[in-house]
Amino acid sequence: MKKVRILIFTLLCVLLAQLSFAQFRSQSLPAMEESSTVKALRSGVEYLSSAMLEGRAPGSEGEKMASEWLSEQFRAAGLDVLSPEGGDVFGLRQPEGDTLVSRNVAAFIPGYVSKLKDRYIVIGARLDNIGSLDYEKDSLKSHKIFYGANGNASGLAMLSCLAERLSRNRVLLKRSVILVGFGASTNMCAGSWYFLNRSFPDADKI
Q: Which pLDDT band, with edges at 50, 70 and 90, does 137 fall under?
């Protein structure tokens, strides 16, 4: 009898779990699919990982287009964009002697507590990916694009949505927040190094 009761109890638990999950799916997923945040994330990832940006290699036109997109998103969210038009440009000497030109995009939300607003929280994502590759296989020339939906189009799209949320709730921010899209990150983390060592004067206050 005890085994039967245990079996019935187990079956009831499984049934309740299935019903709860079914209810969750039926009510939550459509709402999520219709939310403006999900639409913004999808739109951002689709653009940043599109063939037009050619994989956003460091120093490429695609990386520049990603920086322009992020700058526009920051401005639309009401943030103070710290970078000049076209991003905060820096050069990176290559082993063959050429200079790779990349850029960072940074935006700022001031904190409201006078004693804390000169302390900074930095949130970043990389603008670049590994780009594209021309290769030959069996005498056939091919061109492969590494679109980078998850490296790091998803991170940039999230940074954009976070900028909008933080801007809307800035009255809750005791410390100042800086959001940065780092260029040439797949090349020795050059963008973040440049931000900390050349571009941002108060790195010791992060």
A: confident
22 CB burial (10 A radius; 0-12, 13-18, 19+): exposed
Query: Between vectors from CA 157 to CA 101 and to CA 45, what angle results, nearest 5°?
Result: 90
Could you give the CA distance from residue 41 to residue 157 in angstroms, rounded to a whole number? 5
Continuous H helices in 130-171: 154-168
* Token pair for 46: 């689709």
Q: Looking at residue 150, what DSSP letter applies? A: I
In the three-class reduction of DSSP (H, G, I as helix; E, B as strand; rest coil), residue 80 is classed as strand
Beta strands 120-126 and 176-182, pairing class: parallel
* Residue 129 contacts residue 148 (beta carbons within 8 Å): yes
Q: What average pLDDT is seen over the chain? A: 88
- Own/partner long-range contacts of 149-152 (Cβ < 8 Å, ≥24 apart): 149/45, 149/48, 149/49, 152/125, 152/126, 152/127, 152/185
Residue 24 reports pLDDT greater than 50: no
pLDDT in tens, 56-102: 999 999 999 999 999 999 999 999 999 998 899 999 998 888 999 99
Is-contact 131 57, C-beta < 8 A? yes
Distance between CA 113 and CA 176 in Å, rounded? 9
